[in-house]
Amino acid sequence: MPKRVLTGTVVSDKTDKTVVVKVERKVKHALYGKIIRRSKKYHAHDEGNEYREGETVRIEETAPISKLKTWKVVDRVNTHATPAQVAAEA
């Protein structure tokens, strides 16, 4: 079974080796049809304490690490990259 990968923003990096990542999704309201935002926070494992509050990261599902942590941070998403920079990196 493939591991789920989500993208979100780090909202807390206060605990050791853990970051809290807020993942937002847009859903259509069942009755009114308006697009609304729903969010959920995930505790993710950050072995080197390298991710800071406000950064956009990708997290991947893992086996349980602790009571709350079943996700680990894969990498940082460069949200300020231009299409030319993305093509140069590939």
UniProtKB/TrEMBL annotation:
Keywords: Ribonucleoprotein, Ribosomal protein, RNA-binding, rRNA-binding
Source organism: Sphingomonas desiccabilis
Upper classification of the organism: Bacteria, Pseudomonadati, Pseudomonadota, Alphaproteobacteria, Sphingomonadales
Molecular function terms, GO-annotated: rRNA binding; structural constituent of ribosome
Subunit details: Part of the 30S ribosomal subunit.
Gene3D superfamilies xrefs: Nucleic acid-binding proteins (2.40.50.140)
Gene Ontology biological process terms from the UniProt entry: translation
HAMAP family: Ribosomal_uS17_B
SUPFAM superfamilies documented for this protein: Nucleic acid-binding proteins
Role summary: One of the primary rRNA binding proteins, it binds specifically to the 5'-end of 16S ribosomal RNA.
GO CC terms of this entry: cytosolic small ribosomal subunit
One Pfam family named in its UniProt record: Ribosomal_S17
The protein, known as: Small ribosomal subunit protein uS17
Keyword Chloroplast among UniProt keywords: no
Family statement drawn from the similarity comment of this UniProt entry: Belongs to the universal ribosomal protein uS17 family.
InterPro entries named among the record's database cross-references: NA-bd_OB-fold, Ribosomal_uS17, Ribosomal_uS17_bact/chlr
